[in-house]
Amino acid sequence: MDANPIVLDESADDVVVVVVEGEHDIYTAPTLRERLDEALERRGGVVVDLTGATFVDSSVLGALLDARRRALDADQGYVVCVGDQVEPGVQRILDITGLVPVLPVVGDRAQAIDYARDGVRG
Amino acid sequence: MTGAAVVPEVRLTMPARAEGVGVVRQALAGMADALAFDAAVVADMKMAVTEACTNVVVHAYDGEEGTLEVEMLADDAALTIVVRDWGSGIQPRPARREAPALGLGLPLIAALSDSFELKGSTNSGAEVRMTFVADRSLDPASLNPVTGTVGADGRWDTEADADA
User: Fold this and answer.
1) Does residue B3 lie in a domain region?
2) What is the pLDDT of residues A21-44, one digit of tens each?
3) What's the pLDDT score for residue B146?
4) Of chain A residues 42-61, which have a CB less than 8 A from chain B?
5) Are B25 and A23 in contact (CB < 8 Å)?
6) For residue range B88-102, what is the model confidence (pLDDT) as tens digits?
7) Is residue B2 part of a domain?
8) Residues facing B74 on adjacent strands
């Protein structure tokens, strides 16, 4: 079992959710980039769900920001969600970098999926 | 040694590879638990040491094999973490890289540590020394905030206006 899985959930219409759990840094960032590439290739909305993540560093933020830029360029909706109980190892870096409104970051996954879908429809 | 209050507690020496960064973080978590630091300070330590080790992995050896050394030195009031390499020294940009680096590492270290010091010069390696106090009166991120936001090139732009 991978203690730090990154998997795609394609159960929502028009939106792919990249589910990121556990600790992620420069070691797993290449895998995250691959999963984000796969999600973007579906041409719909993309949600990155960090609810189960306990730690993300700037390598992860770099991957999330690159994917965001590509989603914007292709008119694909792109939203990050973190859940209601956010780990300090996730919340702190989002807070001090000011990236919450940039990525953007919301709490609830269902809301994130709606936003990402709306983003696709413009 | 002169019998100073700060003595080496933990020293890790390992190849400067991506898979080692999590190992350093786990060792730090164990040491911080033993010292009963506040959870918010421990979270900041883990983030800062991750960024410092990542800098070594990405920038120090230009794709060649090299060594990453981490020392953790504790006294009653603080934990000092030293991250050291023997690589190409401090340079404004890596000579070669796979995915473009965001360039947020040092701003994050400055914002998360209660004090930090950077030493090094071209071809003589580099050392980042970060200190975290157990009983914080101020959030260091309020004293040394991360300025700027991500630029159009995907790198962090410290001059950019985050609200623009």
Assistant:
1) no
2) 999 999 999 999 999 999 999 999
3) 95
4) 55, 57-59, 61
5) yes
6) 876 655 544 455 678
7) no
8) B7, B79
Give the model's pLDDT for residue B120: 86
Looking at the partner chain, which of A27, A92, A102 has a beta carbon nearest the beta carbon of B47? A92
Among B14, B104, B143, B146, the residue to mutate for chain A (most A Cβ within 10 A): B104
- Give yes or no for a contact between A68 and A36, defined as CB atoms under 8 angstroms apart: no
b/e burial code for range B37-54 (CB count within 10 A of at least 16 → b): beeebbbbbbbbbbbbbb
The overall average pLDDT reported for chain B is 87
A80 three-state secondary structure: strand
Which of B37, B46, B55, B139 to substitute to test the interface with A, most A CBs within 10 Å? B46
Q: Measured between CB atoms, does A34 come within 8 Å of chain B?
A: no
Strand pairing category for A53-56 and A22-24: parallel
CATH of the domain at B119: 3.30.565.10
Residue whose structure tokens are 């975290």: B132
CATH superfamily of A6-121: STAS domain (3.30.750.24)
- Domain residues for the domain of B131 are 9-157
The domain ranges of chain A are 6-121
Residue B4 domain-assigned (yes or no): no
The per-residue pLDDT for B33 is 82
- Domains in chain B, number: 1
